[in-house]
Request: fold
Amino acid sequence: MDIVILAVVIAVVVLGALGGLIVGSRRKKPLPPPPPAAPDITAPPAEPHVGEEAETPREEPRRTIEEVDLPAGAGPVVIEEPPAAEAPEIEIPEPTAGRLVRLRARLSRSQNALGQGLLTLLSREHLDEDTWEEVEDTLLTADVGVRPTQELVERLRERVKVLGTRTPAELRGLLREELVTLVGPEMDRTVHTENAAGGPGIVMVVGVNGTGKTTTTGKLARVLVADGNTVVLGAADTFRAAAADQLQTWGERVGAHTVRGPEGGDPASVAFDAVKEGKEMAADAVLIDTAGRLHTKTGLMDELGKVKRVVEKQAPLDEVLLVLDATTGQNGLVQARVFAEVVDITGIVLTKLDGTAKGGIVVAVQRELGVPVKLIGLGEGADDLAPFEAGAFVDALIGE
Reply:
């Protein structure tokens, strides 16, 4: 019994000791730290300044709007509008009467090879077969054409044989007469701008790319304005970049109104509107610049025919001028044939007839189409387009 009591006492003592150890270990653990307080936010240092800006700003007295003295007579602020764009100065073109005569010297410088060559050959003491063959070669080289060359040589041989004497003056007169006859002085070379119905004359300008169609249309406007006509320009060349701008610039120089459409638009629509506005404005003439056509492209040529048909719904065409580059020689005749099949050509404009051009193309193209050369271009100047005059042209060929 005593042993049991002793064991119980020992157990109680041991349990008490263990409990004390556990409590002591718990008291020794540190408590978690308290949450940190909100940090103090300090403004960033101010940027350094120099001079007066480095001083500490001072409070200054401020005045109200009523206390501010306004200058005497001060009115409302006027905002000046930018000046309007100045209209281009309208030029007065050179009169067309006798223009080719005034430009004769320029033409003769490039054409003397034909006239002077013929005169030299005809002045030989003996005109044998070799000489006449050289005459034929000279004419053919000048692009006169085979058939016209044969006719001219036959007439010259007959008249020289009958004439007998061949002084320089007689030979020059003889050659001039035959060349004028060959060029065709009886042809009507008037650019018709008078409509039978009383409206404006309608002129359509056609040709291959690069012949100078747009420039010729602008120069023709100057010719008509110089003769006292009012002109409307139709920029129906909607496929070549800046063609409409180029034509409008030509028109602005002489006060001609230009009708244009969007780039790449329908050229027939532009041509139709140009004729319509020309009638409404009671203009004397409407000039329609068409897009350059490759004579070998059937689709493009068909479109040119469409432009012609659409224009004729407004008014009949009075002139269809074909622009040819004189420097292309006989190649220009191929172009002329194709254009004549699509539109009824009524007149020819020969450009670039100065320089190395061959004057005989005038005869060849007239024979090919049966229509007259009405205008010739002799240079890059604005007034270098001249009405064709057979006598003045031949005089330029053979010289004084």
In short: The longest helix spans residues 2-28. The CA atoms of residues 4 and 56 lie 94 Å apart. The beta strands are 201-207, 231-236, 257-259, 285-290, 319-325, 347-351, 373-377, 385-387.
